[in-house]
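Hey, quick one: can you model this chain's 3D structure?
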Amino acid sequence: MQFRSSLGGAVRGRLLRASILGAGMVLATAAVAFADAPYPTSVDVEQDGATVTLTGTWVWEDKTDPCGPGTSANRAVGWAADWGDGWDGNFIKSKGAPKGVGYHMGTAEDNLVRTSDANGGLGDCGLPLLQGASDDAPRGVTGTWGPISYTYGGPGTYEICVVTYDVKYKFEGEAIVPKDAKQLVAGGKDHNSDNSAEGQYLDSGRQCANGEGGVPIIVEIPLPVLELTKKAAEPEFTPIVGSTVLYRFRVENVGQGPAAGPIVINDPMVPDAECPSLVMIGDEDDHLDVGEHIVCVGSYSVTQDDIDAGEIVNTATAASGTFVSNDSTETVTEAATVHVLLDESGSMTSAANRVIRDYNRFLAGQQARRPMAIYGLTLFSSERYVNRYGQRVITSVPNLNSKSFRPAGRTPLYDAATRAINALAATNPQSQVIFVIDTDGADNASTSATRSSLAKLIRQKENDGWKFVFRGKDLAGIQSAVAALR
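Sure thing. Here's the predicted structure for all 486 residues.
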């Protein structure tokens, strides 16, 4: 947005005060004690987010147009601004070179007051006088100043003080540069008789703050608001120490002003979170502009404490400099432990192809539904008892085939189930346990466990939160025995 104000009339040394708050602007003027020095007659304030650019016009009243020997050395108009960030902008030291943001001199074309031979020759008699429309209009030399810009590091209300002054200059090629810093006219009540700034600082901020002629322009830099949404890639974590939880951090600017980069994620459990450079998104500047968002990523390694707790809870914030987002908390719960007890006795021989097909379909369904679960398989018969995979992430478990499933022998169902349940319990799983019993025949070979003892063990584990799934034939007796204990 751009605002413009012009100051007219015959009052000398006035500065514009422009207050930019939302869509409104308040203007005021005040007298400045510039003695025989240029002063602004208009100020244009253009604001683009946190960047403010100032331009305007100036007049040097009562300047005549002398020619001939003894005329003054070359003079031009310079300008400076203190951008109100602590009133610390001493732009020109009295006998030093120009320094600081905002010090400028005009070009020979638009800001030259008078050119004459430095030794007093005739030279160029200067620019035409500004002819006032009435007796009250200022008369003298006129020109433009600016543009000068500054980008603030954060939102807030800032006072900008603009000062124009005359300067003795020299040419360097096509440019004009200061020849003697003590010729700079700071204005204010303590100027020297020759309008120089000798023995002083050109401290525009001090002049505004102390009422020494300057009245500040007031600008409001809008506030960025960061909105953080933290999500885990999966709602569950694999209950194995060292397994990885991946997080995504979505940061959006929902405020009214840009947020300066870089964006930083503060998460004590995910210290490696990385955010892309802001020059890679949106309009490719180094700011997260209003409506823009980025996605940062990071990872966390599971500990035994997490497994014991059964969940991981942590909170993160995003920051742009001193501006911090909302807290975003994500809870990831421990994934299930799935264990299948599969009958590999001779009674399964005739149905081996179907058993393999059904088992693989069940495995694929669990892999899709519970990708972070750990998985185990126990094959049993009277001839062998094999516990496969141990604690393995379910997505890495292979399918069953005719080489890995070879039915033979009798069916010690009660013994095998009791052994497998106790072995799994010894690993102390904290998560939900899903124990699947898949058989195609009644027990005919157990030597230690009974239907009653197995039912009691199953009921005990149900009380611990285990879930049992019965697949196949001749399991009604076990199910009835367990139901009777509930």
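One thing worth noting: The CA atoms of residues 320 and 337 lie 42 Å apart.
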